[in-house]
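User: For a teaching handout, I'd like to show students what a predicted protein-ligand complex looks like in token form. I'll give you the sequence and the SMILES for zinc ion. Please answer with just the structure.
Assistant: Understood, here is the input followed by the structure.
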Amino acid sequence: MQWTRSETLALAQQSCTFCYGLGLRPGRSGASTPCNCVFRAVFRACYARFRHCASKEKYISRVSLEANPGRQRKSVWGLKNEEYIADFCLVSRRTLDDYEYRIFNYHFLLGADWKLCCHKLNIDRGTFFHDVYRIQQKLGRTFRELEPHALFPLDEYFNGGGRVKPDEATPFPVKTETAPLAPVIKFPIRRAA
Ligand SMILES: [Zn+2]
């Protein structure tokens, strides 16, 4: 996939001291690359939608990481939210290393605040927030760049974007892999810090 200037500009944080709100910064090879504030914006949008989907009453107590491992990506409308929840969790598990995933799990999935996370992981506050930034950036980039079905932009994910007809769609790749063992997520999610 290709990032465009208009996309990075729209997502950039105006107060960013690295890109000054332009959303681009010089890459190692000289070409411009999206700024980390853009990746964090993508993550925040995807996470907000995840919480929205997960908080719907009918999903409470039903959703787990093992949900529907072999299900085809048939766009039955009623399953779209459920599918998104599963994609969000599985892509995150695959993208993060074990340490990062522990923080992600405690903070974003289980809703533990920074104090509880620092206590659990035996890290200080600065380390925690530094790690959270890195996790958001890593996931934001992956959510946008994932092929063939990126989680972001969300309207393309949820409305199909016209790229692939539902009947022709292939199974989502992460679902066919052997998923690493991960704790079952129990909903409802508690309020995040
Ligand atoms: Zn920036």
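For the handout, you might add this sentence: The pocket of zinc ion is lined by residues 12-13, 16, 18-19, 35, 37 (CB under 6 Å).
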